[in-house]
Records
---
Amino acid sequence: MPDGKIMKQSAVPLKEAATTGPRHEVTVQQAKPGLGADEVRRIPVFVVVPARLLLLDIAGPVEVLRQANRVQSSVRFEVHYIGPTSSLQSSIGITLAAIEPLPQELPPQSWVVLAGDVEHVMLCGGGFGPGKTADDEAAEKAIVKWLQTTVRPGHKLISVCTGALSAARAGLLDGYSCTTHYLSCDELRAIAPRAQVLENRLYVEDGERYSSAGITAGVDLMLYLVHRVAGQSCAVAVARYLVVYLRRSGSDPQLSPWLEGRNHIHPAVHRVQDAIAADITKPWSLRALARMAGAGDRHLSRLFHEHVGMSVPEYRNRLRVAHAQELLRETRLDMERIAEQCGFNSARQLRRAWERMHKTPPREARIHSLRHS
């Protein structure tokens, strides 16, 4: 499967650096505050591999990081696979090897990813293994002890599926909100009675603790983390590559406005959507977008209504309002500054666009953020 075009290191603003790779996959460059043209923020990611690993628990989230490394160059995720044994058999019978030993210490700002396991490994031919062995139990205890002695403030602890149980056994979820696979919520409560176990959540963020529900929710969580450190455009590009929806939060099942209207396969329309998403502040004319799509003005308008389900201006304003909502929640900028950064001519214009999509005024988004900060 084509991976898209790898971009050279650059500090070119996002609005000048969106390109289209194979199959019209978005490739973005995004300058980060405080980074020079040749500087890259490096994030060490340590993936803890347990015995009887549920393979999808690491394959999905790490694929998000792999693709994120390809479509932008401001942040580099440096992935290491670690565990108490150098090789093991995964849930589907594939043997993993060259696993690094559990390190004695972790660099500052490291991410620690805890994957889940399965009761029985599938063997060649479709049969199943005998279940947990004494060696497996010893490996599990080694991981818990390592977590207790190694994870420190400043480290992000990220659990996927039943990986939360290892974090709980290490006492690292006490006093935190968290989640896990729906079949293991009661077990998690029993192990960590001081934790607040939340059900019906894709993922839960509480301080430096991040936990996701069953299996594929690990992809949702990692997309969210990539969005936080590498930007929305990067997360959208990765989500599109993986052909998954990008949820805005663990408790919100609704489709992100950044991917709304993307459930089609028309390359010219995707090309226009990519350009608008890459620079929402630009006063795009219909003629310029039509030229990009290789179509006439009226034909592009018809294509948008047919494939996106809305007009070009409506699509652009939805992205602008979505960005405004992010700024209201994550910054203390006033409405005039937010309107300017989102491409609106004034705060009044922003409010009019907002009212078409939300029942409550913009100030409610900020109040909601303050209540939960």
Note: The domain at 14-255 is CATH 3.40.50.880 (Rossmann fold).
---
Amino acid sequence: MNTPSVLPRAACDPAACAYLLRFLSHDGRGQDVTVPCDEAGNVDMNALTEHLRNNYLGARAMVGRDYSCPTVQTAPSCPDHHEPLLLPCAA
């Protein structure tokens, strides 16, 4: 079962964390990587903890091998939560 990486509270101000960029693990046993982003999927790496930034960069580098193309989703705390909003790798 895939388990999402945990978003530290400091890295996810509720007012600024309406969207999440999510990389799903291909093997089904690995850990998904989820980071806060804007509606277009842009990630403010300066706002991430070192651990989360390393996970994000690793997942981004391994798209197609260990992780799927990321999707932008509304955060679960958002009242109009639905997923996905954007498929950045979609052709």
Note: The beta strands are 3-4, 19-23, 31-37, 71-74.
